[in-house]
Amino acid sequence: MELTDLTRMLAGLLCAVGFFLCLWLPRIDFGKIDPDRKVNLGFATLSGMAFFKLLALAALFAVPAASVAVANYHTIEGVHGVESCNRCHVMTPMVTDMQDPHSQTLAARHFRNGWIPKDQCYQCHSDYGLAGDLQAKMEGYRHLARYTTRTYEEPIKYRGVFPNDNCLKCHAATPKFQAVSSHATLRVRLAENTLSCLNCHGRAHPTREQRTPDHADYPRLMGGDE
Amino acid sequence: MKTLRLQSLAAALAFAITGLYAIDPGPYQMAAFVFFAQPLFLIAGVGYAWRVWKDLKTREVL
Q1: A95 shares its domain with A178
Q2: Low-confidence residues of chain B, pLDDT below 50?
Q3: Nearest CB to A15: which of B2, B7, B22?
Q4: What value, to the nearest 5°, has the Cα angle with vertex A134 and ends A132 and A135?
Q5: Alpha helices in chain A (DSSP H)
Q6: Nearest by CB: A88 against B11, B23, B27
Q7: Bridge partners of residue A45, in order along the sequence
Q8: Is residue A180 part of a domain?
């Protein structure tokens, strides 16, 4: 069992406990609790008032804090998988193309040759979204809001410039990369991101035209038949 | 502090959304968790703290 599955189960359990506590809590009138009532917990005996106040603390503070923490861990870790990206249908063309054995895009070649064994989207877009820094997280939330409110148009467009660091973090130290003289010549421009790796190495994903709903390739990229 | 009805209902709704998100983490569930459930938990927590503070003031503990 993976950690993500474990956190999912833990979050589910915490939410179930919290939910039932919160359904029960409104029935308690703190003004009418018998001051002589005692609650025996086995290891301690509390007054009825103290017990119900602790219960309220658990239901409205402790269990929610734990649930949010576990669910957010799930939000941050769970988004690394390809299937997480593919849950938003605007990402389906990228994933379909990546898994296409005949595609020549960079993503497909990396996938086909096993150059990235798992979490392929995240490995090349590690600066993105809920898993990245604060600015990237805000961008992730913006994407989430735009997607769920359907305030976007297909094909989606990459904002800004893809950082070369995402390529260089794996390639820069390899002998194959260092053996190419133009890499040394262009080292500064690559580091400053004024020249993209894609300029020489081709497209990473299908073109915007291919990802446009009226295009002939669109049904295939959306997972339909060719 | 008499009852905690509103705080409990807000938290119960937030627990339901969070639970759904934990079981099936799709984009809509994630948006509901991020934009609704977390603020609801905050509202419930602040509401509870407010009631406790008022209660302690009434009893002249604070």
Answers
A1: yes
A2: none
A3: B22
A4: 90
A5: 3-24, 48-57, 63-78, 82-86, 92-98, 106-112, 120-124, 134-148, 165-171, 175-178, 181-185, 187-192, 198-201, 218-221
A6: B27
A7: A40
A8: yes
Question: CA dist A140 to A54, A134, A137, B17, B29, Å?
Answer: 37, 10, 5, 20, 15
B interface with A, Cβ–Cβ below 8 Å: 1-5, 7-9, 11-12, 14-16, 18-19, 21-23, 25-28, 30-31, 33-35, 37-38, 41, 44-45, 47-48
Domain that holds residue A217: 85-221
**Residue A26 identity:** P
Q: Residue B39 corresponds to which amino acid?
A: P
Domain stops at, among A50, A79, A108: A79
Q: Which one of A73-82, A111-120, A122-131, B53-62 scores highest in mean pLDDT? A: A111-120
CB A59 within 8 A of CB A18: yes
The pTM of the full predicted model, rounded to 2 decimals, is 0.82
| Predicted complex ipTM | 0.91
Q: How far apart are CA A120 and CA A98, in angstroms?
A: 9
- Cα(A104)–Cα(A119) distance, rounded to whole angstroms? 20
User: In the beta sheet, which residues pair with residue A40?
Assistant: A45
